[in-house]
Structures are given as C-alpha cells and as structure tokens.
Write a structure and sequence with these properties.
This protein is about 25% helix and about 25% strand. The strands form two sheets. Strands 1-2 form a two-stranded antiparallel ribbon. The chain has a two-stranded antiparallel sheet with strand order 3-4. Strand 1 (about 5-10) and strand 2 (about 15-20) form a beta hairpin. It has one helix at about 35-50; strands spanning about 5-10, 15-20, 25, 30. The protein has one domain (about 5-60). The protein is α+β, with helices and mostly antiparallel strands. The longest helix is centred in the last third of the chain and has 16 residues, at about 35-50. The protein is built from one helix and four strands, in the order E-E-E-E-H. The mean pLDDT is about 90.
Length: about 60
C-alpha cells in the first residue's frame, strides 16, 4: 500500500506527519507529536489505510 503518513523522531517521542507537506498530523486540533513509537506507528498505519480507502472521515 502506498504511504501518505510516516513517523519521525522528535524531542518528546515521535511525530506522525504527512509526507507530502512535512506537517504534523492534527486530529481534533491536537498535533500528533510526542507519541510513543507504538502509538505513532499504529496511527500512521490507520491514516494510510483510511486515506487510500477513500474514507473522507479523516481528511485534514
């Protein structure tokens, strides 16, 4: 499956970001930064799945 979201290391943990814009993902006005690696990886995978399944509920 193609990737749209990935994770990167930040000062407080991991950030989930959009690989096309480089910006951190924001959900319910909360930037997805400082996450532990497992949460960040699962979120990136979920967002990729939703994006490429044309699920509009997660559009930013």
């Amino acid at each position: 499956m193609p990737k749209r979201f990935d994770i990167r290391h930040d000062d407080d943990g991991r950030t989930v970001f959009d690989i096309f814009t480089g910006h951190a993902v924001v959900i319910a006005a909360v930037p997805q930064v400082g996450l532990d690696i497992q949460d960040a990886d699962e979120l990136a995978e979920l967002l990729d799945h939703k994006t490429f399944a044309n699920d509009r509920s997660l559009r930013q």
